Amino acid sequence: MTEPRINDRIRVPEVRLVGPEGEQVGVVSIGEALRLAQDSELDLVEVAPMARPPVCKLMDYGKFKYEAAQKARDARRNQTLTVIKEMRLRLKIDPHDYETKKGHVVRFLKGGDKVKITVMFRGREQSRPEMGYRLLQRLAADVSELGVVESNPKQDGRNMVMVIAPHKNQAATDAARRTAKQEKASASESANEQTAQA
Question: Name one GO biological process term (predicted).
């Protein structure tokens, strides 16, 4: 995003001026707008260059840039990074192996991660894609309380792929639970320190 033009860099004969508190001043010549900005010790900032005439606002540009940077940093901090974990299955999977792999999928979903499940076909198994589809549907049903199928099973060469995402409220609940656990741990540490001092 390009920075807006300010003060002397605004090259139009007149502008629609907005005051520092958001009040409408009206359409004024650029010289008058610059004089008002100088008198109030503020910057004249072009906020809507495509309007006719362009809209300019009186503001402290340095403070405005600082606050915008702060908001962008907070937005990045609050952004959750989505991780896609992968789990590979064979068509003729042993029941115990299936339970182990299902346990891993459950753990990933509880951690708030998406899971890409791949069924690999070998040799003649490629002629029976419906068996891979049934296996993926069974797994999706087994973990349905933790996640939802985001991408239905699709044949991809020798593999069949499906993506399961955690429920949105599940991810939020897990984050809240982790925060509460950390707070509880810090509270118990401070209580232990107080008893040690007494």
Answer: ribosome disassembly
pTM for the whole structure: 0.49
Domain ranges for the chain:
7-60, 84-170
Burial grade of 146 (CB within 10 A; 0-12, 13-18, 19 or more): middle
pLDDT in tens, the chain (198 residues): 577 888 888 888 999 999 888 888 889 998 998 999 899 889 999 888 888 889 999 999 888 889 888 988 888 877 766 778 899 999 888 999 999 999 999 999 888 889 999 999 988 888 888 888 999 999 999 998 888 998 899 988 889 999 999 887 655 555 555 666 666 666 666 665 666 565
CATH number of 7-60: 3.10.20.80
Structure tokens at 36: 């008002």
How far apart are the C-alpha atoms of 100 and 165, rounded to whole Å?
Answer: 19
CA 71-67-12 angle, to 5 degrees, is: 115
Distance CA 7, CA 42 (A): 9
- The identity of residue 16, as a single letter, is R
CA–CA separation, 172 vs 89, rounded Å?
29
Residue from 151, 100, 116, 155 nearest 132 by CA: 155
**Strands 84-90 and 114-120, bridge-based pairing:** parallel
Other beta carbons within 10 Å of 51: 12
